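Example noted here:
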Amino acid sequence: MRTVLLTALLLTAPAASAQGGTTLATPPAPAAAATVTLSLGARPGTLVELTQTTVTRLTVEDVQVTAPDGAAPSEAEQGELRQGIEEALGRAGTQTSVGKVFYKVQERAPDGTVTLVNTVITQVPGLGPLTVRLVQTVAPGGTVALTRIESDNPLVQAALSGLTPEVLRNQLGGGGGDLTGVYGQTFAVGQPVTRSVTVDVQALLGAVLGSLAAGLGGGENPLGGVQASPLTVTTTTTYRGVNPAALHVFGTRSTSGAWTVEFGGGPDIPRIRLELLGGSQGGGLSLYRPDGLPVGSTQTQATRLRMSLTQPGGEQLQMLVRLDQTVTLRPR
């Protein structure tokens, strides 16, 4: 179950790629350049290997419990419940995981279109490594198209196979995972370029949770009945020039609008609602080689969520949580 949910979150996260919302330690001042148009000029067989380090911390800001008649526990009971939740999260502490990311230029067609394979290997607690591969084409003019996405995990692969190419393109375009907005775009130093993408999260989660239900082998699906609103992601990219290592430096900022998702509910299953409060924000820097391949980044993301869990009997638990995450990509 956690494997499938992780895949869903990877695909829907507003800035979860080497390109999106990144922040590196401040580099030496880049060299000035009037404009640049980044293209993927690396030769077939060229491979970039990166180490991905993810640091995640979840903080509980508030806990509220109400009974079916609207009554709330005493302040002492509320405090005891909050303390129990905070202690459970505190035992987990700040979670750090290390994975791998590969970019490989597979081939170049006669018309100059490049096939780029992006492989991400992440560690799932209790389940070991999870591999996801994205195969994309980059046209000479910079147009990026996702041709397929696959995983070595049967359950995840079943979920991915249920998604149409259009849905996948929208998901990955919203998260920056397909490099759209970098290749073929002319950037002037210091001049921001902004684009917004609206993601149909309903289609993604419907396929993922439908696969999960099938994998459970019958019975009531605890994550069925999903209802998700569209998610709008706005990304602003600013070219900062070339640093002393001859790498292109891009500053990025990303924000997402309000978003909600609900699932579960039934005679013996609670209904869960997640609400994104005030959007999600990230920002920083990313680096590209002269041949156009990503070579490093660090991404920060700050998200506040309200989670409501309503039991079949009417009891409701509400938690206000903050999720802080930093994802760093560095050459191996």
User: Anything to note?
Assistant: The chain has five helices and 15 strands. The helical segments are 2-12, 75-92, 154-161, 165-175, 201-215. The chain has one domain: 2-331. Residues 1-6, 9-29, 174-178 have pLDDT under 50 and may be disordered.
